[in-house]
Write a structure and sequence with these properties.
Layout lengths: L2 H13 L2 H8 L3 H15 L4 E4 L2 E4 L1 H30 L2 E8 H6 L1 H11 L3 E8 L1 H9 L5 E5 L10 E16 L20 E4 L5 H12 L6 E4 L3 H9 L4 E5 L4 H5 L3 E4 L8 E9 L6 H13 L7
Parallel strand pairs: 3-4, 3-5, 7-8, 7-9
Antiparallel strand pairs: 1-2, 5-11, 6-9, 6-10, 6-11
Family: Belongs to the LysR transcriptional regulatory family.
Keywords: DNA-binding, Transcription, Transcription regulation
Organism: Sporomusa sphaeroides DSM 2875
């Protein structure tokens, strides 16, 4: 069986004539008859019932016609698929990310993207979530991944697509008294422990303050640090305990540099990581390729 035999068969069905099919395909009528006979022999079925110069198609012939059209459509689409693949392999993509997303979510995605599309010129900008949203809005970023602010909603210029979920964890250094507990109650955070906060105005600080407010807890001693990394290093050195994004502590927990302490009701607090793009935007091939890789590499435990 050959592709040409399937094309010849479809032409006979559509033209309702061996002669007209031969003319359309620039073939001798005898060659058309030979190709149909070869198909019938190959599949061991009768495709046409012949009566003199006329013929009718059999049920098997109708089925083969349907399948042949699907096969030929796929084959004929291959050149366009290659053109699309070529377009995907070249271009430019300007991405933005908040600090947390840029440090802990983007790296494996960028690695896979660069390995798959090495000719794409990739530029990544890290900053505050509000800044990244504004830069998508004004067109200086193509896409951005940030932690969602609860005040953000889809608007006329930008849209927000949830891609992952961020939770909080209570962390302490090895040997801290709370690490021996199976469960810690929120009110115990008021005790003799220094509580390490992120900078005011950060999304993580808002999450922590929301939790403490819900539990009616005000820590006695607070130490403010600049970002996730400085908070983790301070906790490792025994300067205090902290509520911090779960996304950013997996390596330290695995290496036992930090201990994740069960804290009552903490699982109720979460926020979304979102993909920010222009509203009503048709993604180009490079953007679509990035989004496909993003969707495939978000860990199942934080996938939105």
């Amino acid at each position: 069986m050959t592709i040409q035999q399937l094309r010849t068969f479809c032409a006979v069905v559509e033209d309702k004539s061996f002669h007209r099919a031969a003319d359309r395909l620039y073939m001798a009528q005898a060659s058309v008859s030979q190709q149909i006979a070869a198909l019938e022999k190959y599949y061991a079925v009768l495709l046409f019932i012949r009566s003199g110069r006329s013929f009718s198609i059999t049920a098997e012939g109708l089925s083969l016609y349907k399948w042949a059209k699907e096969i030929l459509a796929l084959i004929d689409a291959i050149p366009d698929k290659f053109k699309e693949l070529h377009r995907q392999s070249e271009g430019k993509l300007v991405l933005g990310a908040s600090t947390l997303a840029g440090n802990f979510i983007l790296p494996p995605i960028l690695k896979q993207f660069k390995e798959t599309y090495p000719k794409v010129e990739l530029s990544v900008h890290i900053g505050y979530g509000n800044e990244m949203v504004e830069r998508v809005r004004n067109g200086t970023l193509d896409l951005a991944i940030v932690g969602k602010n609860l005040n953000w909603v889809n608007e006329a210029e930008v849209k927000f697509l949830p891609v992952a979920i961020d939770h909080l964890s209570l962390i302490a250094a090895q040997g801290h008294p709370l690490t021996k507990r199976k469960i810690v109650y929120p009110q115990e955070l008021v005790g003799p422990y220094t509580f390490i906060h992120s900078r005011p105005g950060s999304a993580m600080r808002s999450m922590v303050e929301d939790y403490l407010k819900q539990e009616n807890v005000t820590p006695n001693s607070i130490l403010e640090m600049g970002n996730h990394e400085t908070i983790k290093r301070a906790v490792e050195q025994g300067l205090g305990i902290a509520l911090i994004s779960t996304v950013c502590i997996s390596r330290e927990i695995a290496s036992r540099q930090l201990v994740n302490i069960p804290l009552l009701n903490l699982s109720k607090v979460s926020r979304q990581f979102i993909l920010v793009s222009k509203q009503r935007q048709e993604y180009n091939n490079v953007e679509r390729s990035f989004i496909d890789i993003l969707a495939g590499l978000i860990p199942p435990d934080i996938k939105a």
